Amino acid sequence: MGAGHAHKLYRHGHSPVHRLPPHCKLAAAFAFVLVVVSTPREAVWAFGLYAVLVAGVAAVARIPAGFLLRRLVIEVPFVAFAVLMPFVAQGERVDVLGMSLSVSGLWGAWNVLAKGTLGVAASVLLASTTELRALLLGLQRLKLPPMLVQIASFMIRYGDVVTDELRRMSIARRSRGFEARGVRHWGVLAKTAGALFIRSYERGERVYLAMVSRGYAGSMPVIDEVTATRTQWAYAAVLPVTALAVCLMGWTL
Amino acid sequence: MTTAPSLEISGLAYAYPDGHQALFGVDLTVGRGERVALLGPNGAGKTTLVLHLNGILAGGVGSVTVAGLPVEKRNFAEVRRRVGIVFQDPDDQLFMPTVREDVAFGPAAAGLRGAELEERVQGALEQVGMAGFADRPPHHLSFGQRRRVAVATVLAMRPEILVLDEPSSNLDPASRRELADVLRSLDVTVLMVTHDLPYALELCPRAVILSEGVIAADGRTQDLLCDEPLMRSHRLELPFGFDPRSVHVA
To answer: Is residue B6 within 8 Å of B66, Cβ to Cβ?
Structure first.
């Protein structure tokens, strides 16, 4: 039962970063990622500076380095591909530890790894200093299509309900002597997934009835509006603007 | 203030698109401030009837009016404000991330904002004794608490009539009693759909039996429950050891 206010990605705190309005942080994180990916990969020192910037924000937000690094593990499956690049790419080759590696492949791998890690780090920082609910309000404020915000909001509300249903179905299966072992049991698991889909679909219908009964006519009423002052925007802009300066230097030096 | 009855149903008949006919001419009038139990076996058409009260289902024969306002497409917004339906599963009813936002949903959809909205939400939560839980996500509440919040979500719309679908289902005895206290304290017309006959007797002076798509009986709850042949013929059974004659009701 983790979602909602006490989600495991969120780390409760009262730092200046926590206090910034969610839409400022969203915009800042997004701008930062854009700047990072548009930096030339040869400017290795620039990525070092970006890492220092991220570490600085983490320090202000009082997010311990260990916490941040553990969350970064999420990117491992995605960067596995980058590790392959020096072996499979074409072109000029160089010998490293007795292996013949492609130079352009090495640069490509570095590019994916550095930019990916910085992007994930910025997202982890955003998630650990902003409650899920606030993120949705921020997205709404940034004029993300309302339908997408509604879908995300229902995911948060019903994620646990559906997980709980799945758990009960699993208990019911095991109580009748079923343990999933090997391929022959995949059929049962597939049927469970199907049953869960139908149950959720029917719940969706019932939820819709309940919404219509309370006056829903296609759009969610705005109950909480998040606002930001110029000062708050200025604080949020520090990270992407500094990063932009680094990026410009990367292109000119 | 209008003097029309809270709810007036006449000659209501309805068949589902697949041809299954659920209602065969229902006539029912509920006066202002009355608390009426709607009893009936499974498949009697109770849910179908409830969904007609705010126009979710329509297209059959007959008419429904809520405090003088006919349930028609052009009146849907106002009808849905006037008819507060509390569905059986609070997880269906409570679809917003926090209790406060959920209770605010109805009034906000009707255009309320700011301090007035906040006041409405607080008031409704106080009526059901849940004022301290406004910022909790619904799934962190007990089932009984969720049921009471579900009642608050419709109370916040200041309904003319509160319609409860199986309000006592899945509640432990303490939550059941707490909900009864809440319902008794409200100054609103109540239509309560239920299988829980002792609960109907406790809360509703009047009861109607819906059976095979028509109102088969209408009278004092105690009189109906004591009429054994009537009860038996509509598959309504009292719990073991419960004698409605032994209960003193006002």
So the answer is: yes
